[in-house]
Each structure stands twice: as structure tokens, then as C-alpha cells.
Automatic annotation (TrEMBL):
Upper classification of the organism: Eukaryota, Metazoa, Chordata, Craniata, Vertebrata
Domain COMMD1 N-terminal: 5-107
InterPro entries: COMMD1_N, Murr1
Protein name as catalogued: Copper metabolism (Murr1) domain containing 1
A GO CC term assigned to this protein in UniProt: endosome
GO biological process per UniProt: copper ion homeostasis; negative regulation of protein localization to cell surface; negative regulation of sodium ion transmembrane transport; positive regulation of protein ubiquitination; regulation of proteasomal ubiquitin-dependent protein catabolic process
């Protein structure tokens, strides 16, 4: 029973971190998570657990790990348990969490990247070169995901945004025909 309760608390912590970091839920705080999920844990131990889980989620999300990549990553993390890794229960919780949240987190990360790119291009003045960094997660042609970072000047940013709008219009036309 204690193991089930610990797994439930860890799952709640992972979901709470995602709510705060990716879904911008300002009501979720580190203090709330500690009070609701780990009230008996000393503050320094909770802070270490919170920071470790947040860092692992960030690593997993940044790489947009598929199932095989995630399993390899978590296996490596369990092997270095004594030096900042995770135990088997934590690895299982992270695996369940990512399986349920991957698509949503990827969509949020992609949208945030495009919004940053658009706002950066809108803030620039015409004489300076705008450099937009766009982080995109692509998996169009295969199951393997890749992290892509592109740098554009203002003209290329506008050109890319126009092409993306054209693609969206084409998709909309196809979808509405059927």
C-alpha cells in the first residue's frame, strides 16, 4: 500500500510540474505540491526531488523522446542512481507520465517556439537584422524525432510564416472536401 501511495504522489508531482512549467498554471507552486503530496518529507529533500524531476522532464521534453529513447534514457538514469539518477519506481512514473503527456507537451513547445519567433520579428525595427530562433520538433517522415534549430533574418521569417499559412490553407481545403 505504501508503494502505491508513493507512486501516486510521484505521479502527482510530475503532473504538477507539467501544469506549472508547460501549461502555465500559476496556482501550482512548489509549496502546494509539497504540502499536498509529500507533507512528511523534509523541505530540502522535497526541493531536491522536485528539481530532479523537473530537470528530467525538461530533458525528455526537449529531446521529444519516443518510447525507445525514453527507455534507454531511464535505464541510464537508474544505473547512476547513487549520483543523481532515479530508482525503478521513479523511472516507471516518468515513463507513464511521458506516455500520457508527450503529444500535449510537444504541441505546447512547438506553439511557444513559433510565438516567440513571431513576437521577436514584430519587435524589430527595419534597419536591424532580425534573428529568430525557432525550435521545432519534426517527425513528418519517420517515427524518429529530431530537434531542429533554425536561424532566420526578417525576410526569411516572413517568407516562412507565409508558407506555413499556405500549408494550413491547403490542409483546411482538403479536410473540408471530405
Amino acid at each position: 500500500m505504501a508503494d502505491a501511495e508513493a507512486a501516486k504522489s510521484l505521479s502527482g508531482l510530475l503532473n504538477g510540474i507539467a501544469q506549472k512549467v508547460y501549461y502555465n498554471n500559476s496556482e501550482i507552486t512548489e509549496q502546494l505540491l509539497k504540502r499536498e503530496l509529500f507533507p512528511e518529507l523534509p523541505q530540502d529533500a522535497f526541493t531536491a526531488l522536485h528539481d530532479k524531476m523537473r530537470g528530467l522532464i525538461k530533458s525528455i521534453a526537449t529531446a521529444d523522446m519516443d518510447h525507445a529513447q525514453l527507455e534507454a534514457f531511464l535505464t541510464a538514469q537508474t544505473r547512476k542512481q547513487g549520483s543523481g539518477g532515479v530508482n525503478a519506481e521513479q523511472a516507471a512514473a516518468l515513463s507513464r507520465f511521458w506516455k500520457s503527456q508527450r503529444v500535449r507537451v510537444r504541441e505546447i513547445c512547438s506553439c511557444v517556439s513559433i510565438q516567440r519567433l513571431q513576437s521577436q520579428s514584430q519587435r524589430s525595427n527595419k534597419r536591424s537584422l532580425v534573428k529568430g530562433l525557432m525550435s521545432s520538433f519534426s517527425s513528418f517522415l519517420s517515427q524518429d524525432s529530431e530537434f531542429v534549430c533554425l536561424e532566420f533574418d526578417e525576410a526569411r521569417v516572413n517568407q516562412m510564416l507565409k508558407k506555413m499559412a499556405d500549408i494550413q490553407e491547403s490542409i483546411d481545403r482538403i479536410v473540408h472536401r471530405t
